From TrEMBL:
<dbReference type="InterPro" id="IPR011050">
    <property type="entry name" value="Pectin_lyase_fold/virulence"/>
</dbReference>
<dbReference type="Pfam" id="PF13229">
    <property type="entry name" value="Beta_helix"/>
</dbReference>
<dbReference type="InterPro" id="IPR051550">
    <property type="entry name" value="SCF-Subunits/Alg-Epimerases"/>
</dbReference>
<dbReference type="InterPro" id="IPR022441">
    <property type="entry name" value="Para_beta_helix_rpt-2"/>
</dbReference>
<keyword id="KW-0449">Lipoprotein</keyword>
<feature type="domain" description="Right handed beta helix">
    <location>
        <begin position="81"/>
        <end position="228"/>
    </location>
</feature>
<protein>
    <submittedName>
        <fullName>Putative lipoprotein</fullName>
    </submittedName>
</protein>
<dbReference type="InterPro" id="IPR006626">
    <property type="entry name" value="PbH1"/>
</dbReference>
<comment type="pathway">
    <text>Protein modification; protein ubiquitination.</text>
</comment>
<keyword id="KW-0833">Ubl conjugation pathway</keyword>
<dbReference type="InterPro" id="IPR039448">
    <property type="entry name" value="Beta_helix"/>
</dbReference>
<keyword id="KW-0677">Repeat</keyword>
<feature type="region of interest" description="Disordered">
    <location>
        <begin position="389"/>
        <end position="415"/>
    </location>
</feature>
<feature type="signal peptide">
    <location>
        <begin position="1"/>
        <end position="25"/>
    </location>
</feature>
<dbReference type="InterPro" id="IPR012334">
    <property type="entry name" value="Pectin_lyas_fold"/>
</dbReference>
<dbReference type="InterPro" id="IPR022442">
    <property type="entry name" value="SO_2930-like_dom"/>
</dbReference>
<keyword id="KW-0732">Signal</keyword>
Length: 415
């Protein structure tokens, strides 16, 4: 038996939740403070790329209202630039006819603000930033209008290898990996955003010091993921707070291309924490996630990275609301659930405390929910799995709750 957690298909059920991402910024600069928008005449993609190349630090590039067909991806490598449209529903950069498989927009400079526009149907990632400190993604929409499809771009909004990352009031739909993905970064806020019909709604991977709050994660395969993976330049992900989110009906079939790490995410999971440390999940609303509301697991594949700890450690779950769920577990959770009567409780832990021949560790999993909130440890013991030693138990592990990380403060959040 393996715990690859391969997901099966499933119908998505809409939640009647109000979107928290308005169509445009609620604090627009006065009209006389903004430059004239770029000309919409002629080859708009060429006009915009020329403006991005010629931009000066501190400059704002205004995008006009309209839907613009772009054949080539865009790039920005000048510090201190703001790229601003007329609104998420008013300025649309449409890459349906994109040549090549790159991003819609790639940013490799610091102190950049991206706001008030939409990116549609890129062949690769929607908007990616790499090594871009103090970046702001604000009032943006990234979507693939054909709905869930493995041929969609992997990531909608994709900051990586950065410090001081702000993602707010962003909407992402139908990414074949993660709607909002922050990787190998430090000091992060993801807030007040809507992610739907992605494989993973929001993913914090190999990152430190992240606050994820005020978001709606609905109709994804998995709602919010906090992972740490081996063999990346930055490892040892830790100190994430997931709070005040609405995480429901994440029952979309897993449409990630085969071989992607998220191809193992079971349809119907609310929050997944894998091999990460000091993760606090509190004051969230979970509802109608058919596999499990919270899944806690270790990394299960062989690895050689000596820096890497494959076990989740120092997790705290408290004060969450758990509605219906766990009634139709998917993927490799299905046979495990069948052995337990066919359903799963709100909180599921694989019960792994060591890897290979290594010594057992105290994972320090603190489940501080009321007694009415169900919990199960599959009691797998270790990876690789020995089915003969599996010992399921509803008993919550003994733990000393880890201290909650301090709230994230970003020096540039109010600009």
């Amino acid at each position: 038996m393996t715990i690859r957690l391969l997901a099966l298909g499933g119908a998505a059920i809409l939640l009647t939740l109000a979107a928290c991402s308005p169509a445009t910024s609620d604090k627009p600069a006065a009209i006389n403070e903004l430059p004239a928008p770029l000309s919409a005449e002629g080859d708009f993609g060429a006009t915009l790329q020329a403006a991005l190349i010629a931009a000066k630090p501190g400059e704002t590039i205004m995008l006009p209202e309209g839907t613009f067909q772009l054949a080539d991806g865009l790039s920005l490598d000048i510090d201190g630039v703001t790229l601003r449209g007329a609104g998420q529903e008013k300025t649309i950069l449409d890459f349906t006819g994109q040549e090549g498989a790159g991003e819609g927009l790639l940013v490799t400079s610091d102190d950049v603000t991206l706001m008030d526009f939409a990116v549609r149907n890129t062949k690769g990632d929607g908007i990616k930033s790499k090594g871009a400190d103090q970046i702001i993604y604000r009032y943006l929409t990234v979507e693939w209008t054909g709905g869930p499809d493995e041929n969609n771009g992997a990531y909608g909004v994709y900051p990586v290898e950065s410090k001081n990352v702000l993602v707010e009031n962003v909407t992402v739909r139908a990414a074949s990996d993660a709607g909002i993905y922050v990787g190998q970064s430090d000091n992060i806020i993801v807030r007040n955003s809507v992610v739907e019909y992605n494989v993973a709604g929001i993913e914090i991977e190999n990152s430190m010091n992240a606050d994820v709050y005020g978001n709606i994660a609905r109709n994804n395969t998995g709602g919010i993921l906090v992972f740490d993976l081996p063999d990346l330049p930055v490892t040892g992900g830790n100190s994430t707070r997931i709070f005040d989110n609405e995480i429901g009906s994440n029952n979309t079939r897993n449409f990630a291309p085969a071989g992607n790490i998220v191809a193992s995410v079971p349809s119907g999971t609310g929050v997944i924490v894998m091999a990460n440390q000091n993760v606090h999940v509190f004051d969230n609303k979970f509802d109608d996630n058919r596999s499990a509301h919270v899944l806690i697991m270790s990394y299960s594949l062989p690895f050689t990275d000596e820096r890497y700890n494959p076990l989740p450690r120092d997790l705290v779950l408290r004060d969450n609301f758990y509605g219906a769920g766990g009634n139709d577990p998917q993927g490799d959770l299905a046979p495990l659930a069948a052995a337990l009567g066919g359903t799963l409780p709100a909180i599921v832990w694989d019960g792994v405390a060591r890897w290979g021949e290594g010594a057992a560790q105290d994972v320090n999993l603190a489940v501080l929910e009321g007694p009415e909130v169900g919990f199960i440890s599959f009691g797998l013991g270790k990876y690789p799995i020995d089915p003969a030693t599996m010992a399921p138990s509803p008993e919550r592990p003994q733990a000393t709750p880890a201290a909650e990380p301090a709230a994230i403060v970003l020096p540039h959040a109010d600009r």
